[in-house]
Specification:
The complex is a heterodimer of chains A (191) and B (421).
Chain A: E1 2-9, H1 14-27, E2 31-36, E3 46-54, E4 69-72, H2 77-80, E5 92-96, H3 107-112, E6 118-121, H4 123-130, H5 137-148, H6 153-163, H7 166-190
Helix pairs in contact in A: 1-6, 4-5, 4-7, 5-6, 5-7, 6-7
Chain B: E1 2-6, H1 7-17, E2 22-25, H2 32-44, E3 51-54, H3 58-70, E4 75-79, H4 81-86, H5 88-97, E5 102-107, H6 121-125, E6 132-135, H7 139-156, E7 160-165, E8 173-177, H8 181-187, H9 214-243, E9 251-254, E10 261-265, H10 269-282, E11 287-292, E12 294-296, H11 300-307, E13 312-317, H12 327-335, E14 344-349, H13 359-371, E15 377-379, H14 384-396, H15 403-420
Classes of the chains: A alpha/beta (191), B alpha/beta (421).
Chain lengths: 191, 421
């Protein structure tokens, strides 16, 4: 089982991100379970969602405390909460930012992860470029596919189009594809 | 057809497949997405021949369902928590009148303190009202149980409550196999009421009954529940033949055959318990699971046959009767009444107000039940430190203040303490 925890702020769409990721896995005939951290969330407050992906039925209903991958939508969260809690030593880290891990003072944490398991991607910038709104989800999921290989880009694209039909879907897929290709290039150069 | 959708959405779709004719709704978290989904289907025409009625309260929601059902319509509503309490009088009326309404309960805690998260306090508050109560373990279960619920309700002319864990199931996106309309139609025939308000053939429903016949009306209500004990497995078997899934029934077992310890639980927690049991089985423990699907009627006989002769029974439930023990544990005790060589029953209260129930905690409590059994209810993962401090405070200070606020302040202090070091 592969377990993903997505950190964001209320309004950035962490719940949708987990749901779309689970649909992408489903489209590859995998079992997937996406769920929010339940609460009376408000705009801007730190929020979390979860996604499990497996080749067999998922029965477990506990929150994900030891994730295989972290997706962080907003770098201001690093100062607010312990985002890295429970991240496995073999885990993956994907952060939405146009800065480097060194700029974010995260180099020591990244150094503990296997080479090529941590990348940053300017998902909000890509969203502004392709979609015209600061919605980083699609780009982050495209980057996630490239970073982990747990799902394929074409499944992510199909899942995005299911959630957002028409032109908005196309724009989101364009953002996902550019993020995906950028991460493929980055991981290759790191390896 | 396989789908990857939110639980509320798949539940709404299953209800639409049952062709309800009147849906009354008043929104309350966490069931809101279900009736919103149904409202949308009525508006788009995906759900035909159905009137969606917005009402001003939960009391009105169930009252309208009662009226619709008495007039011969297949009626549905949904609620949770405080909403169920607000309709309490109508809950008893629907059962007392014998009207086959189906209601989804998106299980949620009851305040005070205010809490929107999941537990089973709401369902337990109405356990004696005369409704059948079925508990879903997964969103697939929710689909299948709702379809069986309409069949059961109408066959017996009794209301059925399908309990679906709020958030944990209603807001989880997971794989479900959505039945085909033709199969649902074949399983669930059109509603043929046993009593109906029809101007062409006038009757009254809801007579005042004095001491001369009240006991007998109640007894017949009780008798119907005993009929349900037979019908529930029958319909589950028929459902399995048609849909290929072993869902429904009174109870289900998992690795229970020769287990010395059996866990008894209801609802979505069963998945996490199964994973824990697999891990403990690999460690050499003899442990299995009994999942209660039908809490009302309670499968007393079936449970007694399963539990008799075991060493330990651990009952885990998301509710308890304050001052007493867990309601499910009490019912399990009842099932073992006068049983020779009855197992030791260990009561665990867990997951109140949305507290996560983890495998780690389950491992600990199952092992403890074997090694160091306890009396009364064990509260899983109880924060004994803040309770000790609060009790000390209450003993020392007369105007000790509101409990909830005091505990929140203590939690804040505890969270900030390490940062100050």
């Amino acid at each position: 089982m592969f377990q993903i925890r997505i950190h964001g702020r209320g309004g950035q769409g962490v719940v949708t991100a987990a749901a779309v990721l689970s649909v992408a896995a489903f489209l590859e005939d995998k079992h997937a379970q996406a769920f929010p951290s339940f609460g009376s969330e408000r705009m801007g407050a730190p929020v979390v969602s979860f996604c499990r992906i497996d080749t067999k039925e998922i029965r477990l209903r506990e929150p994900i405390s030891a994730p295989d991958a972290l997706i962080v939508q907003d770098v201001t969260l690093f100062k607010a909460i312990d985002v890295f809690q429970g991240l496995k030593e073999s885990g993956y880290l994907l952060v939405n930012t146009n800065q480097s891990f060194a700029d974010l003072h995260l180099a020591p944490i990244v150094a503990k992860l296997p080479a090529g398991h941590a990348v940053t991607v300017p998902a909000t910038e890509l969203a502004l470029k392709h979609i015209g709104r600061p919605v980083p989800n699609a780009a982050l999921l495209g980057a996630f596919a490239a970073l982990t290989g747990i799902v394929r880009l074409d499944s992510v694209a199909k899942a995005i189009r299911e959630e957002f039909p028409g032109k908005i879907g196309d724009a989101n897929v364009a953002a996902a594809t550019e993020a995906h290709d950028a991460v493929v290039a980055r991981v290759k150069s790191a390896a | 057809m396989l789908k990857q959708v939110e639980g509320s959405h798949s539940t709404a779709e299953a209800i639409a497949l049952c062709r309800p004719e009147v849906i009354c709704a008043y929104p309350i978290t966490p069931q809101t997405h279900i009736v919103e989904g149904l409202g949308e289907m009525v508006k788009t025409g995906d759900l035909n021949n159905c009137e969606f009625i917005n009402v001003e309260s939960e009391f009105a929601a169930l009252s309208v369902a009662i009226g619709a059902s008495a007039a011969g319509a297949r009626a549905y509503t949904a609620t949770a928590s405080q909403g169920l309490l607000f309709m309490a009088e109508a809950v008893y009326n629907a059962a007392g009148l014998g009207l086959p309404i189906v209601m989804t309960l998106g299980n949620r805690a009851i305040g005070a303190p205010i809490n929107i998260w999941n537990d089973h306090s709401d369902a337990m508050s109405m356990r004696d009202a005369g409704w059948l109560q079925l508990f879903a373990e997964s969103n697939q279960d929710s689909i299948d149980l709702h379809i069986q619920a309409f069949r059961l309700a109408e066959e017996l002319s009794m209301p059925v409550m399908v309990c679906v864990d709020g958030f944990i199931l209603t807001h989880a996106v997971e794989r479900v196999d959505m039945p085909a309309q033709a199969d649902v139609d074949a399983f669930l025939p059109p509603y043929e009421p046993v009593q109906v308000l029809d101007p062409k053939d006038p009757i009254s429903i809801g007579a005042m009954v004095g001491p001369d016949a009240f006991t007998e009306v109640r007894f017949l209500q009780h008798y119907k529940q005993t009929l349900a004990l037979r019908l529930i497995p029958e319909f589950a078997a028929e459902f399995q033949t048609r849909f290929g899934r072993d869902t429904g029934g009174l109870l289900r077992t998992y690795r229970a055959d020769d287990a010395e310890m059996l866990v008894v639980a209801m609802g979505s927690i069963n998945g996490t318990i199964k994973d824990t049991i697999d891990e403990m089985g690999a460690d050499g423990f003899s442990i299995g699971l009994v999942t209660i699907v039908s809490f009302r009627p309670f499968p007393t006989e079936a449970l007694r046959r399963l539990l008799a002769g075991r060493k330990h029974v651990v009952v885990i439930e998301k509710s308890f009767a304050v001052g007493m023990d867990g309601q499910l544990a009490n019912n399990v005790d009842l099932a073992l009444r006068n049983t020779p060589a009855a197992p030791q029953v260990h009561s665990v209260v867990a997951g109140l107000g949305g507290r996560a129930i983890t495998r780690a905690s389950l491992h600990r409590v199952f092992r403890r039940a074997m090694a160091q059994p306890w009396e009364g209810a064990h509260f899983l993962d109880l924060n004994e430190e803040i309770i000790g401090k609060e009790l000390h405070h209450v003993r020392k200070v007369r105007r000790s203040g509101p409990t909830a606020e005091n505990l929140l302040r203590r939690l804040d202090q505890a969270a900030q303490a390490p940062a100050a070091e």
